[in-house]
């Protein structure tokens, strides 16, 4: 996807990577084992070995213990692992006293400021979708600073803080530009793509939120204007509502999209409809020193325990994890195996119109490896 790595560690010497596994809730417990199976099935020529650490987090863990994200989980991730896979979390739609999302907390505690979500059609003909959505991961409305109060007339008002900082906007803009350049480098080497040159689309709503979204927009533009190493990138903008419209009508025009937290969340989930299902869209939560692969789907309680959850988003997230750790070659093999499965279209889970089980899809992809 990007070849941007937090650890440029790839070599011919044998290497053991220690990977944290955090299934979380719902189908997370069914798809995270798929990521482990794929890593264990990699070609021995890569000289990669893996050790796995099973870790706890999630709403179910909160209901059992009163803690959604144990301190032990965070400490082990920081000190004993090279990276991690996170499955899914069940987030209640109404306030539950003492509970907050463990993946949001992990992003903050580990400094995972970027959520990188490639969205690409795998069909062998008429490829119309090939974009990466880069979502700022630490602020915006997700700072979760809310209050509710009663007005003089007895009615209630709720308020939420939307926080945008120059620091966070600069670093998300920079990594988005780096990804745009790396995608162009792959195209220069012959990688198939819809795009002939790098494009970065900054998404915002500064026509209404002139201070907060205005700061996001201007910070990225100023960084671009003062760093000539990114001058080959075409910097464009889209107001978020126009972005949604054009993404569905003309997805082929977008290359790399960068957005504040809320817009990036909505855009990346919506973009999954362009490629068939949330079950095939991966993501990576990326910081300066750590990365967590995370499928974009939720905990899917309606299919939990049925053995039909699509493992492809997790498998692609596993490849993203390897890529950001500096292991592009085995990651590319995983991508190719997944694409071959999708192009053939025989072994597929119900969300893609098939009748196969989770494990049957995993086995088919391993066979292609």
Automatic annotation (TrEMBL):
Signal peptide: none annotated. Its EC number is 1.1.1.87. The keyword tRNA-binding does not apply. One of its GO terms (cellular component) is mitochondrion. Pfam families: Iso_dh. One of its GO terms (molecular function) is isocitrate dehydrogenase (NAD+) activity. InterPro entries: IsoCit/isopropylmalate_DH_CS, IsoPropMal-DH-like_dom. Its cofactor is Mg(2+). One of its GO terms (biological process) is lysine biosynthetic process. The keyword Cytoplasm does not apply. Keywords: Amino-acid biosynthesis, Lysine biosynthesis, Magnesium, Metal-binding, NAD, Oxidoreductase, Phosphoprotein. Pathway: Amino-acid biosynthesis; L-lysine biosynthesis via AAA pathway; L-alpha-aminoadipate from 2-oxoglutarate: step 4/5. Gene3D superfamilies: Isopropylmalate Dehydrogenase (3.40.718.10). It catalyses: (2R,3S)-homoisocitrate + NAD(+) = 2-oxoadipate + CO2 + NADH. SUPFAM superfamilies: Isocitrate/Isopropylmalate dehydrogenase-like. It comes from the Eukaryota. Belongs to the isocitrate and isopropylmalate dehydrogenases family. PANTHER family: DECARBOXYLATING DEHYDROGENASES-ISOCITRATE, ISOPROPYLMALATE, TARTRATE, HOMOISOCITRATE DEHYDROGENASE, MITOCHONDRIAL. This is homoisocitrate dehydrogenase. It comes from Wickerhamomyces pijperi.
């Amino acid at each position: 996807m990007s070849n941007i790595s937090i650890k440029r560690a790839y070599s011919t010497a044998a290497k053991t990577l220690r990977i944290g596994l955090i299934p979380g809730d719902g189908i997370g417990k069914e798809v995270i084992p798929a990521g482990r199976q794929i890593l264990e099935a990699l070609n021995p020529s890569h000289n990669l070995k893996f050790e796995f650490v099973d870790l706890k987090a999630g709403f179910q863990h909160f209901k059992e213990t009163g803690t959604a994200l144990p301190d032990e989980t965070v400490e082990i991730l920081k000190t004993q692992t090279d990276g991690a896979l996170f499955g899914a979390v069940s987030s209640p739609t109404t306030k539950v006293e003492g509970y907050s999302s463990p993946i949001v907390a992990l992003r903050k505690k580990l400094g995972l400021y970027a959520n990188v979500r490639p969205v690409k059609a795998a069909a062998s003909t008429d490829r119309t979708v090939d974009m990466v959505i880069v979502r700022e991961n630490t602020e915006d409305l997700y700072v979760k600073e809310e209050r509710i109060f009663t007005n003089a007339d007895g009615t209630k008002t709720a308020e939420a803080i939307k926080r945008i900082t120059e620091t966070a906007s600069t670093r998300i803009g920079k990594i988005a530009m780096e990804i745009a350049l790396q995608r162009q480098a792959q195209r220069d080497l012959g990688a198939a793509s819809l795009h002939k040159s790098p494009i970065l689309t900054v998404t915002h709503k500064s026509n209404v939120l002139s201070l907060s979204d205005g700061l996001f927009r201007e910070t990225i533009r100023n960084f671009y204007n003062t760093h000539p190493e990114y001058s080959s990138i075409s910097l464009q903008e889209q107001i978020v509502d126009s972005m949604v419209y054009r993404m569905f009508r003309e997805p082929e025009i977008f290359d790399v999209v960068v957005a504040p937290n809320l817009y990036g969340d909505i855009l990346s989930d919506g973009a999954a409809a362009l490629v068939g299902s949330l079950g095939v869209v991966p993501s990576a939560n990326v910081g300066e020193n750590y990365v967590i692969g995370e499928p974009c789907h939720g905990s899917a309680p309606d299919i939990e325990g049925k053995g039909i959850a699509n493992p492809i988003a997790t498998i692609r997230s596993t490849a993203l994890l390897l890529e950001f750790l500096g292991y592009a070659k085995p990651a590319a093999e995983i991508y190719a195996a997944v694409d071959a499965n999708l192009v053939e279209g025989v072994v597929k889970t119900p969300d893609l119109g098939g009748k196969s089980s989770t494990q049957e899809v995993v086995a088919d992809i391993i066979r292609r490896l």
